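FORM 12-B: Structure-to-Sequence Request
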């Protein structure tokens, strides 16, 4: 008996040592979302749950729309870019060169991302197809097919280059060679602007070569990544015969690192667009809303959700559709569903996504996914982490009967005195920002910077995000 007891004691000591030696995550005061398992060490009778967004009613006049759209938030309000054509209904089968010659980039503005106006910009002579005069780019061969701007947040960026954009296509092998000889190679070209309206080429030559693309006929989006300290571009590339995603980085937006193929596709899956961008409330996490393309089902499409952290591969925790084609034939038409670049807060507790067809979807802030537990209870335990701050904020929702209790533990899983489950004030309700309190209050500064684990005991509840704050 003594031998068995000794073995058990040694095993427990060994287990605690292993727990204490686990790598410690440095989260500082960042907001962390449960869109992946980055923070999660243990889930017991709880699961990660994807929350599809809600389609909002159409507005009058209808929101402008077009393939490969981009919605930006600036001091002008919301700025919306989308593709148009000088000949409505034109098609590449009527002539590849004339088709791409006729493409333009159109522009709309809104104070609320819901009601849009088409400003008469006067940049180009009025055109009968666009009497509103809302053209921001014309006569840029191939570029207007997928011109995709962003606001450059790199520290020290010149005001004349506050906005940047990429656009362009690659020629397919042995096709349109005479056009290529006359008009130069394809690839992604770079543009800059002080206001997102008046654009000029950064240089005449493509900054990302057409050999990388296969064939860039998608929305290829770049942005400044604070976490990587570089420009990042996610772009279309065929990978093993399927439409897939690759990425590259740059320090100057001109010279780009060798491409890296992203292993994002499930078997027999086409990812038509990357639609990858930093999440505005936690920019170290990239959200992706790629279009899944079903070539053998009438080219039907739907929208997926993936995430990535810095230069990691995409996380495919959720393989189900995020936005389905829906009831009716419109959503099931050829290539009917593309998400626009741009996820924006449009209410105190909501954020909006934009799709082709003038559609707007909303979900709660941070609310794409959660740790979900049923009424009979579930547990989340985080990996060891170090935080900076003196109070814990959570984004959560419970039923009228549900609740959440939070415990702070040391790295070995031992409750820290004063911060145990028994000390926690029961949390129920629905808040995007609720401060956790224990009997002694909410101040956790005494353990700031020390390795800790968080234990959540949940009943009929969802936990979307957490963040440690520095009180003012």
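FORM 12-B RESPONSE
SEQUENCE OUT:
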């Amino acid at each position: 008996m003594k031998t068995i007891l000794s073995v058990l004691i040694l095993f427990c000591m060994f287990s605690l040592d292993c727990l204490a030696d686990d790598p410690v995550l440095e989260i500082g005061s960042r907001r962390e979302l449960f869109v992946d398992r980055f923070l999660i060490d243990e889930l017991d009778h709880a699961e990660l749950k994807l929350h599809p967004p809600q389609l909002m009613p159409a507005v009058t006049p209808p929101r402008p729309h077009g393939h490969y759209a981009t919605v930006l938030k600036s001091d002008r309000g919301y700025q919306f870019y989308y593709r148009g054509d000088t000949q409505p209904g034109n098609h590449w089968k009527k002539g590849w060169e004339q088709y791409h010659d006729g493409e333009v980039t159109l522009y709309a503005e809104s104070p609320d991302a819901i009601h849009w106006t088409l400003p008469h910009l006067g940049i180009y002579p009025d055109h009968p197809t666009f009497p509103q005069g809302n053209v921001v780019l014309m006569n840029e061969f191939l570029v207007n097919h997928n011109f995709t701007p962003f606001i450059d947040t790199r520290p020290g960026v010149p005001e004349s280059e506050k906005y940047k954009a990429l656009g362009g296509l690659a020629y397919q092998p042995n096709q349109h060679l005479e056009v290529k000889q006359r008009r130069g190679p394809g690839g992604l070209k770079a543009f800059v602007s002080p206001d997102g309206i008046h654009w000029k080429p950064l240089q005449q030559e493509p900054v990302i070569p057409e050999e990388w693309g296969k064939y860039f006929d998608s929305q290829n989006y770049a942005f400044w990544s604070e976490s990587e300290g570089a420009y990042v571009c996610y772009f279309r590339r065929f990978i093993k015969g399927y439409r897939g995603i690759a990425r590259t980085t740059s320090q100057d937006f001109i010279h780009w690192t060798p491409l890296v193929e992203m292993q994002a596709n499930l078997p027999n899956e086409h990812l038509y667009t990357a639609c990858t961008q930093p999440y505005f409330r936690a920019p170290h996490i990239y959200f992706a809303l790629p279009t899944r393309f079903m070539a053998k089902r009438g080219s039907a499409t739907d929208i997926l959700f993936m995430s990535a952290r810095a230069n990691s591969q995409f996380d495919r925790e959720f393989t189900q559709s995020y936005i389905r084609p829906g009831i009716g034939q419109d959503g099931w038409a050829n290539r009917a569903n593309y998400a626009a670049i741009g996820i924006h807060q449009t209410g105190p507790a909501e954020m909006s996504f934009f799709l082709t067809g003038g559609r707007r979807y909303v979900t709660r802030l941070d609310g794409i996914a959660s740790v979900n537990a049923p009424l009979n209870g579930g547990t989340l335990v985080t990996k060891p982490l170090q935080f900076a701050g003196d109070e814990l904020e959570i984004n959560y929702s419970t039923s009228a009967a549900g609740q959440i209790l939070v415990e702070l533990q040391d790295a070995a899983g031992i409750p820290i005195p004063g911060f145990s489950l028994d000390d926690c004030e029961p949390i129920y309700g629905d808040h995007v920002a609720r401060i956790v309190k224990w009997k002694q209050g909410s101040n956790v500064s005494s353990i700031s910077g020390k390795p800790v684990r968080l234990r959540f005991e949940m009943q009929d509840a969802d936990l979307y995000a957490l963040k440690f704050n520095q009180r003012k």
